[in-house]
Amino acid sequence: MGAVTDDEVIRKRLLIDGDGAGDDRRINVLLKSFTKWCNSPGTPDEGSVKGSLQTTCLHFVPKNLIQVLFVTVFRFTQYQRMMGILAQCEFSMGKTLMVYDMNLREMENYEKIYTNIEQNITSAHDKIAECKKEIQRAKRIRKNRQEYDALAKVIQQHPDRHETLKQLEALDKELQQLSHIKENVDAKLELRKKQFHVLLSTIQELQQTLENDEKSDNDENIQGSPAQNGE
Amino acid sequence: MGPVELLHMSVFSQSFSPCGRFLAAGNNYGEIAVFSLSAALSPDATAQSQKPVLTFSAHEGPVFSLLSNDCHLLSAGSGEVSCWSWAELIKKNTKPLWTKRPNYKSSLEIPEINSMTFNSRDNSLVLAGGDNNVHILDLERGLFKSVLQGHSDYVHCVSVRGREGEILSGGEDGAVRMWDSRTGQCVHCIEVHKYESCARPQFGKWISCVTTDSDWMLCGGGPSLSLWHLRSLSPTSIFPLIGCQRQTSFYQDMILAVGDGPAVSHCLLGGEVKAQIPCSPQSLNTLQLNTNSTDYRVLTVGGSSDHIDVFTNLSYRTFSFSF
């Protein structure tokens, strides 16, 4: 208690019940009326008794009896009044306690909601990071697809491989046939050349033989005539 | 930088820092400006955060190409390559680590370096030179190890096919050549303007952008932007974009292209143009995606204006940096 300064106490009390109309006043009133009740005399003062006598119809009752009755009634009413004030104070205290409990529970509730929201925030952050990674992946995939498309466009411009192969095969066949024909023609040419060579060489030889024969005939004639002349 | 200079400024190149929080941009006056993305995208960004945190003069001529690796920024301008450390640049120290110049045959005119790219297989830098050659610089030893000759006019752009270890180069002569990085021989040569479906004789035959993701290649310039399948060396899709495209890139399942015209074109691999997002410069030269940081995944484009548009969502322009 010594740690809390007077200022704090005053500030708190002003905050709670600054205007004096409320529990504080009630407690003060109760205390005052209790002390008054404890210290009140056995006999009441003349003025109050007379005033209240005039209003009541207890004229015929003897004065002393009336006085005692009045005092007991008076004290009883004070007592009732004090009990009432006490009950009011208790009631307000109970109310404050309940409000305090309610505040505590509200705080708990808010704490729960707070942690919940924090968790949501972190999970949202994680999801954002995930999505960013996804985007990068998707962009890479898109880039690859576009590259494929670009290459495919170029490839489409070139003729089909089967077609080209078929054309190549046909050309090969043609080439083979033509070379075959060429070979044949070449062989024939060789053969004819050889035959002509044979023919020509035979003719040459015959010519040679005929010339030789002519020559030998001439020689014989020349030899024969001198021999004739010699005889 | 007076208003007239700002009016005539063109942004030719951009590069993001390895941490992804800074953007370096090179313009035609030889300056490089470093912008802070983290400041500009933070909730309490002001108009001042769209200005550069550091501007310095890097080369005498225009800065045509910027490239970043784990800790360095490489810039190429008129004939030389400079290397800057990102850590030093963030601390506003603008002294270059080294500056190298490829061996040019003629010493009279210095040809410019149009484009650079890394070849991570052998840790080398591939440079597209204005002397019709592709130079290869070995980053470990710091020497120029080979020269790929074959183009008959200057080389605009280079790209590297990681899986096969080939270098692709596109040039003013309309040929896209594929070189083997180890032997330095030209493996293939595609003359894009000879294909009827791609050719646009009214624009010419030059190729200004080549990019690849190992199986497919995008090239454009004078001929229409076209997607090629590298295994079969055949054009698969032609994109019906008006104007010449100066830089393209593959992004997820889309193709982003910038060039003539104040718009970034989003196209699908099949050949259709999905969207054209307007931006502030009248024509665009460079397009970069920030893949180094997950917080600041933005697309930035720069072109013939002193503004660099930043897109946090690919569908609309968020704000612009200005020099």
N- to C-terminal separation of chain B? Answer: 9 Å
* Mean pLDDT rating of chain A: 85
Shape of chain B: globular
Summing up helix and strand content along with how strands pair, one would put the structural category of chain B as: mainly beta
Characterize the overall form of chain A: rod-shaped
Radius of gyration of chain B: 19 Å
Task: List how many beta strands of chain A DSSP finds.
Answer: 0
Quaternary structure type: heterodimer
Secondary-structure element string of chain A: HHHHH
- By secondary-structure content and strand pairing, the structural class of chain A works out as mainly alpha
The largest pleated sheet of chain A is described as: none
Tell me the helix content of chain B: under 10%
Mean pLDDT of chain B: 89
Tell me the strand order in the biggest sheet of chain B.
1-2-3-4
Beta percentage of chain B is: over 45%
Low-confidence segments of chain A, given as residue ranges, are none
Quick overview of this protein structure:
Chain A is an all-alpha fold and 231 residues long.
Tell me about this structure.
The complex is a heterodimer of chains A (231) and B (323). Chain A is mainly alpha-helical. Chain A has five helices and no strands. Chain A has helices at 6-17, 23-39, 46-55, 63-157, 161-230. In chain A, helix 2 packs antiparallel against helix 4. With 323 residues, chain B is mainly β. Chain B is 5% helix and 48% strand. Chain B is built from three helices and 28 strands. Chain B has helices spanning 3-7, 37-41, 86-90, and strands at residues 11-16, 22-27, 31-36, 54-57, 65-68, 72-76, 81-85, 98-100, 113-119, 124-129, 133-138, 143-149, 155-161, 166-171, 175-180, 186-191, 207-212, 216-221, 226-229, 234-238, 245-251, 254-259, 263-268, 273-278, 284-289, 299-303, 307-311, 319-322. Chain B has a four-stranded antiparallel β-sheet. A four-stranded antiparallel β-sheet of chain B has the order 5-6-7-8. In chain B, a hairpin with a 4-residue loop joins strand 23 (263-268) and strand 24 (273-278). Chain B is globular, with a radius of gyration of 19 Å. The model of chain B has no long low-confidence stretch (mean pLDDT 89). The chains are: A mainly alpha (231), B mainly beta (323). The interface between A and B is medium-sized, with 12 and 15 residues.
